[in-house]
From TrEMBL:
Origin species: Mesorhizobium tamadayense
Molecular-function GO terms, alphabetical: oxidoreductase activity
UniProt cross-references to SUPFAM superfamilies, sorted A to Z: NAD(P)-binding Rossmann-fold domains
Similarity comment: Belongs to the short-chain dehydrogenases/reductases (SDR) family.
Alphabetized Pfam families for the sequence: adh_short
Superkingdom field: Bacteria
Protein name, entry field: SDR family NAD(P)-dependent oxidoreductase
Record keywords, A-Z: Oxidoreductase
InterPro entries, A to Z: NAD(P)-bd_dom_sf, SDR_fam
Length: 131
């Protein structure tokens, strides 16, 4: 952030629990209060997955991975995109940068829940791009 600000760019780094979907609007409202609009979202939410045979995967572990890597990311992105479309001027470039992994293309039986979440997220961001 300091490096961007040294170039005269207004920037902020925000850290929050992306799995808490009920707080997404509050976060976006805070951004809009500070900057007036949202020009860019850098999305890189993820969590470390304990490797193991996917046949031993239990619902609680799967749900935890999906809550962060997919559900939280999808709904936060939707909140940001809506703010970009409502608040942004038509001539202001806006972008979403999704930092993910090769897991949608190169799956691993030891990290099936992670690979599933990333493949679904890749499909979601394609839909966002088309919209």
């Amino acid at each position: 952030v300091a490096k961007l600000e040294s170039y005269g760019v207004a920037a902020a780094y925000l850290q929050s629990d992306i799995t808490d979907v009920s707080r997404h609007e509050e976060t976006v409202t805070g951004i809009l209060s500070r900057f007036g609009r949202v020009d860019c979202l850098v999305s890189n939410a993820s969590m470390a997955v304990v490797p193991g045979d996917f046949l031993d995967l239990v619902p609680a572990d799967f749900d935890k991975t999906i809550a962060m890597d997919l559900r939280g990311t999808v709904f936060f992105t939707l909140a940001v995109v809506k703010a970009m479309l409502v608040r942004g001027a038509a001539d202001v470039p806006r972008s979403i940068i999704n930092i993910t992994s090769v897991s949608p293309e190169v799956s691993s039986p030891e990290r099936a829940d992670y690979c599933i979440s990333k493949a679904e997220l890749a499909a979601f961001y394609q839909a966002v791009a088309f919209r």
